[in-house]
Amino acid sequence: MPIKVDKKAIISKNAKLGPGVIVGPYAIIGPDAEIGAGTSIDAFVQVIGNTKIGKNCRIFSHAVLGNPPQDLKYKGEKSFLIVGDNNIVREFVTMNLGTEKDSKTIIGNNNLIMAYSHIAHDCIIGNHNVLANCATLAGHVTIEDKVTIGGLVAVHQFCRLGVLSIVGGCSKVVQDVAPFSMSDGHPSAVCGLNLIGMKRANFSVEAIRVLKKAFKILFFENHTFDKAKELVKSGLPLTKELNYLLSFISSSKRGLGRQ
Q1: 71 catalytically annotated
Q2: Does any domain span residue 102?
Q3: What distance in Å separates the CA atoms of residue 178 and residue 168, rounded to the nearest whole number?
Q4: Residue 170 within a domain
Q5: Do 227 and 111 have their domain in common?
Q6: Domain residues for 216?
Q7: Which member of 121, 126, 140, 150 is catalytic?
């Protein structure tokens, strides 16, 4: 497939463009950028720094990918932004390089990053996630898979958002968000189970039943997490979903928001 580059685009001779790449007018692609096959770069987009974009992505106008981290510790070290395949990056999105030497900000595959969202240095984003307009991730945030972040949500540095979690719009996330949960508020706290997401992901009736009971004990009864985990382990079958939930909670360094 031929590469199609508008004559008004500014592309370094050292940039690497795969087959079928389309570059719109006034886009800037730097010398250390690599664009995968079939990816479309719209007008006024900047792809700078040590940035690699995968196949079949769509980068809408005025997005800036690979700019230096907004971190006062950064002194120009060689760091990276890695973006996977089939991602949609809407207007005015910003994604930063990592901070330390050889560090990486990593975006997986099949994500929708809506307009004005910001992904800061050293974040790790999985697959099939949706970040709604103006979602803002501080440094070192981890988003697992099939996570939905509402519009105008701000996520504190080093927080983790577990698989199939959903965070309501305008929430303030200062602690980890449990897998399979719905969270909302200031600060964000678990308010329920993401039943629709689990059904769409073809969870079994038994898996959902067990998680419902576990969530009640963990998040809505007056127990410490240690006591709640003991009750869950002794009273419920340890399905793979429940084991994952318990492992996520046990490995949390920031704690989890709950009512």
Answers
A1: no
A2: yes
A3: 14
A4: no
A5: no
A6: 199-250
A7: 121
